[in-house]
């Protein structure tokens, strides 16, 4: 078997098998069929990626079809949003179609089924119909109206269409088998009466086809070769095929190809809900500002938060196509946007929690403009000028009056480097009446060749631009907020999912445009919000530089006292030793597991000093996992202000020459 064949997912294997068995490649046709009753969310991106990805792979058309069969829940707003989101993701559809385009054809086929004794009008209340359905272990019972004459059924169905009956008085049902083990086959409803205005057909119809009747027949009309849907539709496949067989008998000449339904596992994401109904409740209850709130898992929300199309498509590729349901950790999605923005986002300086620093030996009237690299990952990104003056802002957390050796930032009597500028030494503090530090007085040194361990970002007060920062966090505090039968998912809302911060940014950001993305150095990735104006800059936090939720994740329960003792022993071990242990097996792990282990290493790095890490720079070449773990820790220390030195540079350069792609990628990221 060739490498190319091995890499095919199970859907591609099905298609390849069909092609080998004689299906002309020109017959390949796919579709993405959303219901326009809400905005698309991250779960839909998998279905979008599969269908449009197959279209790209086989150079086959992909239809965008709106299954608009329920006028009470569908709106043009949702149609427009869906089209906008798919376009933003970078996909193009061959035809824009609507199930409502086929209402007349569906009606004509239903009439033919009545004539053939395969459908009948049932006049029972919905409760009676539901009760007669039976259970998975008990067969159903026939409706008393099941044997109505063809003439009576035709007359009633036409009168239903003409609007002569109120809603709920009659339905049209397929006549299949009330004893079928698959409950969906027990005379399913095909049409119900709804006196509702449709967003496209207006008031032309007052009977509307049910989803199971409409969906498969729309596929058939469009001559879709492979009808791909999520796993919950697998029980529907038998009904899909039964309806398909009926209409094929009526229209085989006009529509010679019969679609094939196949199911894949849908995308489930931790700390997220995927139900449109529940997402709508968040909007209607004012928990979020709208469908495009950056905390929402909608594609519109992800776009506004700063996610890129490439990061989402890369995420879908990493998730893959599976046959079994599973839950993907949201940290993988966050990893994908970090990976993308690390390559493309310009580095800038912003201070979110300012502390004033006065450089006492720097002239009051003097200012300088220093050259600053825009993106070390992109040599073509160029550079910009940043201003420096006597008074600057740094982050409050970057200063302590007294601190230990693991604190690489500014402390009294200690020195740090200001990014792109001078080295400063803290000499005294000024406090208010309550003992809070309001200023730090420092002296600067023009000798920038000195070796110091810490590097801080900063903003010149004289040149600082005010900005509103919307710091978003996960909307839910539980990994599966809608999985509890005895609890409302709303109970798990994170009360701190949004913080509004008044910050200061460097002047190069004064003229930013909506949608532009940046890395605020040492803080995370941010983008310019839709609400931003030149007079009031607004930035959304897309994602931090690392996963801040790692330490909050529940650890699995231990199965025995022996395992508990082992865990306790591990917790007592030094962080650097645990990191070495994690690194040993790193390269043997699947990619998703690697990301989780990497996040654990990043969290452990908080308790590692440079003196503990440096001996690992000499790790043997064959122990590549340990070297990767060392590189991950080193990156965290550098982010927290550790100053580069010759040993660090030599370790990185050696890694860049390695054959292992993961190690090279980690080295490139520093």
UniProtKB/TrEMBL annotation:
NCBIfam families: glnS, PRK14703.1
Family statement: Belongs to the class-I aminoacyl-tRNA synthetase family.
Cross-referenced PROSITE patterns: AA_TRNA_LIGASE_I
Binding site for L-glutamine: 67, 211
Region described as Disordered: spans on this chain: 549-572
Protein localization: Cytoplasm
Positions contributing to ATP binding: 35-37, 266-267, 274-276
Pfam families associated with the record: tRNA-synt_1c (PF00749), tRNA-synt_1c_C (PF03950), tRNA-synt_1c_C2 (PF20974)
Keyword Plastid attributed: no
Position of sequence motif 'HIGH' region: 34-44
Protein name listed in UniProt: Glutamine--tRNA ligase
Gene: glnS
Segments carrying motif 'KMSKS' region: 273-277
Top-level taxon of the source organism: Bacteria
């Amino acid at each position: 078997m060739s490498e190319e064949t091995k890499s095919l997912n199970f859907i591609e294997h099905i298609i390849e098998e069909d092609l080998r068995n004689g299906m002309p490649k020109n017959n390949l046709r796919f579709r993405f069929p959303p219901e326009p009753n809400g905005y698309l969310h991250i779960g839909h991106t998998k279905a979008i990626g599969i269908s449009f990805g197959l279209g790209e792979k086989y150079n086959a058309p992909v239809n965008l079809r709106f299954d608009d069969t329920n006028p009470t829940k569908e709106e043009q707003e949702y149609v427009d949003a869906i089209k906008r989101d798919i376009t933003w993701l970078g996909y193009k559809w061959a035809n824009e179609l609507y199930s409502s385009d086929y209402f007349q054809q569906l009606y004509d086929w239903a009439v033919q089924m009545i004539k053939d004794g395969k459908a009948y009008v049932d006049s029972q209340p919905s409760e009676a119909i539901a009760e007669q359905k039976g259970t998975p272990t008990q067969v159903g019972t026939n409706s008393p109206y099941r044997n109505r004459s063809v003439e009576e059924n035709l007359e009633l169905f036409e009168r239903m269409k003409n609007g002569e009956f109120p809603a709920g008085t009659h339905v049209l049902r397929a006549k299949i088998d009330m004893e079928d083990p698959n409950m969906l086959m027990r005379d399913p409803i095909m049409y119900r009466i709804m006196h509702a205005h449709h967003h496209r057909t207006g008031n032309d119809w007052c009977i509307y086809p049910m989803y199971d009747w409409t969906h498969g027949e729309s596929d058939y009309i469009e001559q879709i070769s492979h009808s791909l849907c999520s796993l919950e539709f697998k029980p529907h496949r038998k009904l899909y095929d039964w309806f398909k067989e009926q209409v094929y008998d009526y229209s085989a000449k006009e529509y010679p190809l019969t679609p094939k339904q196949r199911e894949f596992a849908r995308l489930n994401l931790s700390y997220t809900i995927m139900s449109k109904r529940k997402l709508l409740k968040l909007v209607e209850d004012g928990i979020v500002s709208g469908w495009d709130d950056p905390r929402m898992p909608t594609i519109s929300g992800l776009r506004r938060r700063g996610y890129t199309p490439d990061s989402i498509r890369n995420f879908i590729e990493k998730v893959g196509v599976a046959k079994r349901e599973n839950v993907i950790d949201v940290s993988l999605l966050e990893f994908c946007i970090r990976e993308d923005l690390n390559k493309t986002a310009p580095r800038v300086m912003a201070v979110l929690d300012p502390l004033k620093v006065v450089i006492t030996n720097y002239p009051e009237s003097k200012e300088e403009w220093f050259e600053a690299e825009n993106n070390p990952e992109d040599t073509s990104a160029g550079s910009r000028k940043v201003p420096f003056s006597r008074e600057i802002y740094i982050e409050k957390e970057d200063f302590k009056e007294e601190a230990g050796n693991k604190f690489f930032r500014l402390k009294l009597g200690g020195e740090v480097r200001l990014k792109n500028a001078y080295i400063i030494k803290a000499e005294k503090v000024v406090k208010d009446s309550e003992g809070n530090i309001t200023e730090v007085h420092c002296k600067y040194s023009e000798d920038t060749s000195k070796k110091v361990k810490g590097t801080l970002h900063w903003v010149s007060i004289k040149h600082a631009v005010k900005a509103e920062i919307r710091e978003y966090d996960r909307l839910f505090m539980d990994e599966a907020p809608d999985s509890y039968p005895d609890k409302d998912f709303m109970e798990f809302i994170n009360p701190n999912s949004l913080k509004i911060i008044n910050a200061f940014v460097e002047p190069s950001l004064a003229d930013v445009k909506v949608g532009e993305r940046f890395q605020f150095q040492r803080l995370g990735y941010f983008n310019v919000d839709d609400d931003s104006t030149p007079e009031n800059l607004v930035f959304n936090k897309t994602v931090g530089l690392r996963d801040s939720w790692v330490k909050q994740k529940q650890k699995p329960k231990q199965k025995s006292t022996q395992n508990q003792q082992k865990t306790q022993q591990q917790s007592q071990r030094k962080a650097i030793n645990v990191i070495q242990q994690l690194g040993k097996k790193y390269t043997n792990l699947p990619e998703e597991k690697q990301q989780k282990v990497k996040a654990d290493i990043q969290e452990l790095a908080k308790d590692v000093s440079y003196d503990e890490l440096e001996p690992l720079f000499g790790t043997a070449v064959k122990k590549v996992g340990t070297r990767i773990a060392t590189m991950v820790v080193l990156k965290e220390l550098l982010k927290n202000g550790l100053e580069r030195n010759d040993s660090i540079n030599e370790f990185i350069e050696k890694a860049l020459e390695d054959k292992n792609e993961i190690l090279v990628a980690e080295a490139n990221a520093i």
